[in-house]
Design goal:
Elements lengths: L5 E4 L15 E8 L13 E2 L3 E3 L2 E8 L9 H6 L7 H6 L2 E8 L5 E3 L1 E6 L5 E6 L4 E3 L5 E9 H5 L12 E8 L22
Antiparallel strand pairs: 1-2, 2-12, 3-5, 4-5, 5-6, 6-11, 7-10, 8-9, 8-12
């Protein structure tokens, strides 16, 4: 296991064909272990270890109780972890999920995330716009309402496995590999014959 109970694997590690999710996309499985035990306070996140695609480093941030608050700041503070209503408030909310660009500089990416159940069936799919920019002012992109928290925690939906692991599939479109430029030799012009 890795960073704070989060693990990044590839489809091949699970015996899945690499093109199962997308051809010409690089796919990662992000496993959030013991999801049901994670705090569901809004704004609290868990981040995956970094992974690499298109020579760029990425990670995923997951907010089990959502990334923001539907309430004014003073009311949200009242419903903090210590409050008996925090669990009820969080269970009515959504899980938030974001792809984070971790490399220096700017880039663009087209990506997709899927929430899958313990059998590998897709339950929710979200796709970014084509060539979504990531720069110094926008280091992440995602959704604040990827799936209802109550749906994830409901055992009848079979989303979490026996270890309470939530698996998220992240696919990033592979950048075309630029063709190597082969220098074309300059045309040699014969010297004029001596007279």
């Amino acid at each position: 296991m890795s960073k704070s109970g989060v693990e990044v694997t590839s489809p091949e590690m699970w015996g899945l064909p690499p093109t199962m999710f997308h051809d010409k996309w690089k796919t990662f499985l992000i496993h959030f272990h013991k999801f049901a035990e994670l705090p569901t306070t809004k704004g609290r996140s868990l981040e995956s270890p970094e992974f690499t695609c298109n020579d760029q480093k990425w990670s995923v941030s997951l907010y089990p109780g959502g990334d923001g608050s539907d309430y004014p700041n003073d009311v949200a503070l009242l419903f903090s972890e210590a409050c008996c209503f925090a669990e009820d408030m969080a269970n009515s909310g959504y899980v938030s999920l974001y792809l984070n660009h971790r490399s220096r500089g700017n880039t663009t990416a087209t990506f997709e995330v899927k929430i899958i159940n313990k059998y590998g069936d897709t339950l929710e799919t979200r796709k970014s716009s084509n060539n979504r920019p990531f720069d110094s002012s926008n280091r992440n992109s995602g959704w604040n309402d990827i799936i209802k928290l109550s749906d994830v925690l409901d055992n009848s939906n079979a989303i979490l496995d026996k270890n309470s692991t939530l698996t998220v599939v992240v696919s990033i479109k592979q950048a075309p590999i630029p063709a190597k430029k082969v220098p074309i030799p300059a045309k040699k012009t014969p010297l004029p014959a001596k007279k």
